[in-house]
Write a structure and sequence with these properties.
Blueprint (H helix, E strand, L loop, with lengths): L11 H90 L20 E10 L3 H8 L5 E5 L6 H7 L5 E9 L17 H14 L3 E8 L7 H8 L8 E4 L8 H7 L4 E3 L2 E2 L6 H18 L1 E6 L3 H16 L2 E4 L1 H22 L8
Helix pairs in contact: 5-6, 7-8
């Protein structure tokens, strides 16, 4: 009997060898997938980076355009301002020429006090600045029991009413003319160094015309403007026809205002003491003592204060004491009268004694 041959089963070793190509392909496929994924991720990251770079470049370009537009706008604005200033200067020049050709009515002279203190008296003039904004402080100033001078700011709410009340209260009226300072960024409207000559003169005269009963002028601020000798000469030239005096508040040591007034023969004086740099009553009282000492030494002195409650309180308390000390409180015009009289007496004495003469102002 013929025996059937059994089919031999392939060995595991043989199966393993046959599967090698499949495994290899599988591995290669997996590697390919991983490489593709890595490549796609790299491409995506590059795309993101390029997009960000493009956004940054676009933003930079927009900023550059905005800056350029801003500069262009500023240039146009500056050009317009310069054209406007040039037009104003041209108009002022033409108006000045026309004004010279047309005769003007002479401004009215205001007579100030004719009283002359005795040559032997020690006199003090006190000026209270910044009158016009507050009615209550202004009226309290007018009620002080002595001759004083109030310096009224033009175009303020109570300027006219307080200036009208002043003479009946025994007070003299000055214009407190706003002038450009050096450092303050905001100081209100007033006389500026950038203004043409005719504009300055007209603005100055408008201030003078705004205040009733005024007999003199002093400067409000003005540390920048009063150092300009040319501008001070322009302004002082407006005063002789009106018969006004000028008091230099001396807001700067380099002020040219006093010399400009003196050259034109305008009655003028320089402030000796500021009363209330500090608003503490004890400091104000100390400054008042310095003012009295100056008067005792020189025969006269001029102090400037403000309508602060502390200043008014000290003056209300101290004025009776000043009378007791032999100090005569006078208006500014009376102080100027006294000085002119004393200088005249000195000139006469010098003439008889043969000593050199001194200047009246």
């Amino acid at each position: 009997m013929v025996q059937k041959r059994r089919k031999k089963k392939p060995s595991r070793k043989l199966l393993s060898r046959k599967n090698l190509p499949i495994l290899g392909v599988t591995v290669l496929f997996c590697i390919g997938i991983m490489a593709g994924a890595f490549s796609l991720d790299h491409i995506y990251q590059r795309h993101i980076e390029n997009a960000r770079l493009a956004q940054a470049e676009q933003a930079a370009a927009e900023r550059a355009q905005a800056t350029l537009a801003q500069k262009k706008s500023r240039f146009i604005e500056l050009k317009k301002q310069r054209e406007k200033q040039a037009a104003q200067q041209l108009a002022a020049t033409q108006k000045h020429k026309k004004a010279k050709a047309t005769p003007k009515e002479a401004p009215k002279k205001v007579a100030f006090s004719s009283y002359i203190p005795a040559a032997s008296s020690q006199i003090v003039a006190i000026v209270i600045d910044d009158i016009g904004y507050q009615r209550q402080e202004g009226e309290r100033t007018l009620a002080l029991p002595a001759k004083l001078t109030v310096a009224v700011l033009p175009f303020t709410p109570f300027a006219k009413s307080l200036a009208k009340q002043a003479p009946a209260a025994g007070k003299e009226v000055m214009l407190h003319a706003p002038m450009e300072p050096k450092k303050l960024s905001y100081w209100g409207d007033g006389l500026k160094a950038s203004m043409p000559e005719q504009a300055l003169r007209e603005s100055f005269n408008s201030m003078i015309n705004d205040i009733p009963n005024l007999v003199g002028i002093n400067n409000h601020m003005g540390s920048g403007l009063t150092e300009n000798a040319e501008i001070m000469a322009w302004l002082m030239a407006e005063l002789p026809a009106r018969g006004l005096y000028f008091i230099d508040s001396r807001t700067t040591a380099a002020s040219a205002a006093y010399d400009a007034a003196k050259k034109l023969g305008i009655p003028t004086y320089e402030r000796d003491i500021f009363l209330d740099h500090s608003r503490k009553p004890k400091d104000i009282s100390r400054q008042l003592d310095k003012l009295v000492q100056t008067a005792q030494k020189n025969g006269m002195a001029l102090g400037i204060g403000h309508p602060y409650p502390e200043t008014l309180q000290v003056l209300e308390q101290r004025i009776p004491q000043l009378h007791a000390q032999g100090i005569e409180l006078v208006t500014v015009s009376e102080l100027l009268n006294a000085r002119a009289n004393r200088v005249q007496l000195a000139l006469q004495t010098n003439k008889h004694s043969g000593t050199p003469k001194t200047s009246v102002f």
